[in-house]
Amino acid sequence: MTTDSTPIETTDGFHLVIDALKLNGLDTIFTVPGIPITDLTRMAQAEGMRVISFRHEQHAGNAATAAGFLTQKPGIALTVSAPGFLNGLTALTNATTNCFPMILISGSSEREIVDLQQGDYEEMDQLAIAKPLCKAAFRVLHAQDIGVGIARAIRAAVSGRPGGVYLDLPAKLFSQTMDAAAGKKSLIKVVDAAPRQLPAPESVQRALDLLKGAKRPLILLGKGAAYAQADADIRALVERSGIPYLPMSMAKGLLPDTHEQSASAARSYVLAEADVVLLVGARLNWLLSHGKGKTWGGDKAAERQFIQIDIAPTEMDSNVPIAAPLVGDIGSCVAALLTGMGSNWAKPPAEWTGAVNERRIKNLAKMAETLALNPPVMNFHSALNAIRNVVKANPEAIVVNEGANTLDFARSIVDMYLPRKRLDVGTWGIMGIGMGFSVAAAVVTGKPVIAIEGDSAFGFSGMEVETICRYNLPVCVVVFNNNGIYRGIDQNPTGGPDVAPTVFVKNARYDLMMTAFGGVGVHATTPAELQKALEEAVASGKPTLINAVIDETAGTESGRITSLNPSAGKKK
Ligand code: ADP
Ligand code: MG
Questions:
Q1: Domain check: are 41 and 126 in the same one?
Q2: Which of 11, 42, 65, 507 is the most buried (most CB within 10 A)?
Q3: Is 567 within a domain?
Q4: Ligand 1 atom at shortest distance from the alpha carbon of 250
Q5: pLDDT confidence of residue 301
């Protein structure tokens, strides 16, 4: 307030949040508007940010998560208080579990009322609830602290092991005003948000010594390696060392899956036989049978030695002893290994690489035979063969994949050729990421997206086809419709009127969901129809949904993780 005629320029909480994000190169918000953040979404758009509005917060959160993985910048999800906040938490937790940077920003009710539990609109102590689910959680109460709050959230999300961060912004904050110049000064442009972390020279030497003595070495690339964007050095490490490598699902494409050193087609053999395993941004969790047991050759596991590259020191020895821990960022660690290897590093014994190669070629030939079959009713293999052809012709397309059988088969059948082109259910095996990940991939990269979806998995986020149509995104969803979860043939043993819990409406027309919003819908019953429709969708960039009719008897219970079912083995 001033009494002279020139008013002091002021800013407010809304604009400080927007300016702080923009100052740090964060130009996209994934959201569902509502109290108290509706105006924030409007003003962000008015200030030139891309604001993508969803139908449910979980998918906005998933989109932010995928954006974080693809860009190394925290994806931003923005929700309303209590219920909207809770809807965003699955994504926040999933981001943390997968080590992807994202920031969930939620509006919240007034502290004074919440803390006295006086029954406010959407009352909830959101900060306390978010804390155990994410890497860090902050609340900002004063407009002048918004700059610090956003800077801390960014650093927490991307530095060290990346993860999800929660930022709590009470409704009152947005309308707080302050002097515009002071406001501008209060913002922080984060310098070097994810500093390189160089490995210790003696750790590098220890790793090289172990690798040098190996008779049957193996490199295992995880999604941390894909995230690190050290693509050229990772490829050089594999090729210069001559060591067979296995990509985890989201590391597919770091080197083309058709690479002659890829041991994917000899996976069980190399895991059981390798004597020294170099893990690059991959954890020895359930996805790798915890580094022990039958998968790893049973008794042979005792003699195996691991080298592990990871930015998180506490990841070491989490499941089995790590003989040579290499703590640092993947780019720096791989570069150090390359330097140490020099130019005349001895390739692994031909006995080993020959044996791996022999199995690889044999198994690839077997797979080619299966893929060439064209059974009267389309099954997972014949449908995925059609998609495989289209991805081969469009290697820049991003593949999103979820489901049970649809996931397991697609992972092994659809080859990837470029880094970070495959997004899937990740560490948790979470269902529901499909449309959120697809939207983010299209928005962030502008490339065509092919979402390969089980019919059940699709259901979790299906309403977001409206979002895809509204923003006219180049997303083609292929629904593998086998009438149910795993399969469509379960019966109600009582003979009662309810269908079995795993069964859906028979012969559903998911393609009509897309046409309802102005997109293209295709009903495909043969691989040829599927391939043609997918080629057209990728070429046109029009939102498309292909209802791919799959043999309802074709699936396996729980896909390839049947062993995790409590009643495994007791099934008929
Ligand atoms: P996957 O499931 O593909 O095996 P994980 O998610 O289990 O991959 O492992 C990824 C690992 O990568 C995590 O332990 C994480 O700490 C690590 N990581 C992520 N980013 C980096 C990075 N830039 N440098 C080093 N390690 C990283
Ligand atoms: Mg199904």
A1: yes
A2: 65
A3: no
A4: 3
A5: 81
Domain that holds residue 277: 201-358
Question: Does residue 489 lie in a domain region?
Answer: yes
The pLDDT score that the predictor gives to residue 2 is 47
Separation of alpha carbons 52 and 60, rounded Å: 8
Helix axis angle, 146-158 relative to 13-23, nearest 10°? 40
Alpha-carbon gap, residue 69 to 128, rounded angstroms: 26
Q: What is the pLDDT of residue 570?
A: 54
What pLDDT does residue 4 have?
62
Residue 379 and residue 354 share a domain = no
Backbone angles phi, psi at 533, to 5 degrees: -65, -40
Q: CB neighbours (10 Å) of residue 25?
A: 12
Residue 363, domain member (yes or no): no
Name the domain boundary from 316, 334, 358.
Answer: 358
Ligand 2 ion: Cβ-proximal residues, 5 Å cutoff: 454-455, 482
Ligand 1 pocket by Cβ (under 6 Å): 98-99, 161-162, 222-224, 227-228, 248, 250-251, 281-283, 285, 287, 310-312, 315, 329-330, 427
Q: Which residues contact 78 (CB under 8 A, 6 or more apart)?
A: 29, 30, 31, 37, 40, 41, 60, 105, 106
Ligand 2 mean position to 322 CA, how many Å?
39
Nearest CA to ligand 1 atom 24: 329
How far is the C-alpha of 469 from the C-alpha of 518, rounded, in Å? 7
Q: Are strands 28-31 and 75-79 parallel, antiparallel or unpaired?
A: parallel
For residue 93, give Cα distances in angstroms to 97, 128, 230, 277, 534: 6, 14, 26, 29, 33
Return the residue matching tokens 């087609």.
265
Same domain membership, residue 511 and residue 552: yes
The alpha carbon of 404 and the centre of ligand 2 are apart by a number of angstroms equal to 8
Range list of β-strands (E), 430-572:
449-454, 475-481, 520-524, 544-549
136-185 pLDDT tens trace:
999 999 999 999 999 999 999 999 999 999 999 999 999 999 999 999 99
Q: Is residue 193 part of a domain?
A: no
Pairing, β 324-327 against β 276-280: unpaired
Decide which of 153, 186, 219 is a domain's last residue: 186
What stretches in the chain show pLDDT beneath 50?
1-2, 571-572
pLDDT tens per residue across span 280-330 = 999 999 999 999 999 999 988 889 999 999 999 999 999 999 999 999 999
- Considering the domain architecture, whether residues 467 and 399 belong to the same structural domain is answered as yes
pLDDT of residue 69: 98
Same-domain pairing of 95 and 214: no
Please report, in angstroms and rounded to a whole number, the separation of the first and last CA atoms in the chain.
Answer: 79
Chain centroid, CA 100 distance in Å: 8
Cα 48 to ligand 1 centre (Å): 33
Q: What is the CATH number of the domain that holds 229?
A: 3.40.50.1220
Q: What is the CATH number of the domain that holds 526?
A: 3.40.50.970
Same domain, 95 and 182: yes
Distance of CA 16 to the CA centre of its chain: 30
344 shares its domain with 378: no
How many domains are contained in the chain?
3
Does residue 64 share a domain with residue 21? Answer: yes
Give distance in angstroms: CA of 316 to centre of ligand 1.
12
Q: Which residues of 281-307 are buried (b: 16+ CB within 10 A; e: fewer)?
A: bbbbeeebbebbeeebbeeebeebbbb
What is the pTM (predicted TM-score) of this model?
Answer: 0.96
